[in-house]
Amino acid sequence: MSDTGAGSGGSGESLLFLTDEQLRKGIEAMFFAYRGFTADPDRILQKHGYGRAHHRAVHFIHRTPGTTVNNLLSVLGVTKQSLNRVLRTLIEDGLVESRVGQRDKRERHLYLTLAGEALEQALSDAQRARMRAAYRTAGPQAVSGFRQVLEAMMDPEMRRHFAATRDGDQ
Amino acid sequence: MSDTGAGSGGSGESLLFLTDEQLRKGIEAMFFAYRGFTADPDRILQKHGYGRAHHRAVHFIHRTPGTTVNNLLSVLGVTKQSLNRVLRTLIEDGLVESRVGQRDKRERHLYLTLAGEALEQALSDAQRARMRAAYRTAGPQAVSGFRQVLEAMMDPEMRRHFAATRDGDQ
DNA sequence: GATTTTATGTCAGTCTTGTTGACTTTCCAA
DNA sequence: TTGGAAAGTCAACAAGACTGACATAAAATC
C-alpha cells in the first residue's frame, strides 16, 4: 500500500514541477484544514469539559475495542502519564471501562461504555459530516488523491497503524 | 452505526458512496498525517527552545511581511495575548522586528530579521521536503485532489485567508 | 525459586500554549 | 474635548504535553 500510487506507469508523470510557492500552499492547506477538521468536535468536547486528548482516546478505543493501554500509547504517540490522566477521567466519568486481561493480568483492556459510545457517536458524526461534505465538494477523484498524499506524508510507524485496519475503498 | 452516507441522488457526480468506515479512514489519515507534517519542524524548533506557535508566527510573517498583529491574529485564530507572548520572545531573540505603524501608530508591523528568515528557511525546507516527497509518491493527480479536499474542509473564514495569497498551480 | 522484564499506574514538577481580565496608548468621531 | 473603540501589553491561570522517580503485579527468564 505504501508503494507509489503513481501506478499508471508513464515516466512523463514524474515531471512534477513543484515550486516552493506551490509547496507552501500545500503546507498552509494542511494548517487551515486541520483547524476545520477539529473545530466541530472541539465545540462538543468543550460542553463536556473534555479536550482533544479525550477525543483521540475515545476514537481509538471505539475503533479497536479491548485495546490495551500500551497499544493505545503507540497509536497516540504520547506518554503513559499523559494518556493516564485522560483515561482516568474517562473511567471515573463512566465513559470507558478498563478490564483486567484474562491471558495476561497485567494488561488492561479498554472498552467504551454505552455513554462512551454515545459521546463517540456525537463526535464522529460531526467530524464525518464535515469530511463527507468536503468529499462531495471535491469529488471521488479528489478523495483518492487526498488519501494518497496523506498516507505518503505519514511517518512509517504511523502508516503501519493507519494501514492496520479494514478499509473498503482502496 | 449511524447513517451510511449514500449518494443523495441528483447529479451524476454525487454518486459517492461513502461508508462510515471510509470516512473514518479519512479522519484517521488526517490525524496521522498531521503528525508527520509537524514532526520535522518540531525537531528543529526544539533545538531552539521554540514551539509550534513560534513556527506559525514566523511562517505567516514571512509570507506577509509587514503584517500587523491584528492581521496575524485573525489568520492564526488565537487570542492576542497568546500571540503576544510568542512575538515577545521572537522579538527579544532578534528574529522578528516590530515597527510602529506610520499611518496608525497603534499598529505594529512585523518583519523577519535575517536571523528570522534563516530559521524560517530551515523550518520550511524541512516541511517542504516532506511535502514534496509525498507529492512525488502520490503523483500530480493526487496532489490536485489533496488540495481540493483540504480546501473544502476549511471553515469559510480560513478559506478566505488561504485563498488570499498567490498560488501558481491551480 | 530468585531475578529481571513488562504493563500499568501514580506523584511531582516543568514547559508550551491556550484562556480571561485589567491596563495603556492611540485614534476617531460626536 | 471628551468618550469610546482599537491595538497592543502585562499578569495570572488552565489544559495538556513532557520528564523523572517510584510502586505494584504478573509474566518471563535464569
From TrEMBL, chains A, B:
Q: Which GO terms describe its molecular function?
A: DNA binding; DNA-binding transcription factor activity
Listed A to Z, the keywords are:
DNA-binding, Transcription, Transcription regulation
Cited PROSITE patterns? HTH_MARR_1, HTH_MARR_2
Superkingdom of source: Bacteria
Q: Which SMART domains match?
A: HTH_MARR
- InterPro entries assigned to the protein according to its UniProt record, in alphabetical order: HTH_MarR-typ, MarR/SlyA-like, Tscrpt_reg_MarR-type_CS, WH-like_DNA-bd_sf, WH_DNA-bd_sf
- GO BP annotations, alphabetical order: response to stress
Where the record annotates domain HTH marR-type, the positions are 20-155
Protein name, as recorded: MarR family transcriptional regulator
* Taxonomic lineage from the root: Bacteria, Pseudomonadati, Pseudomonadota, Alphaproteobacteria, Rhodobacterales
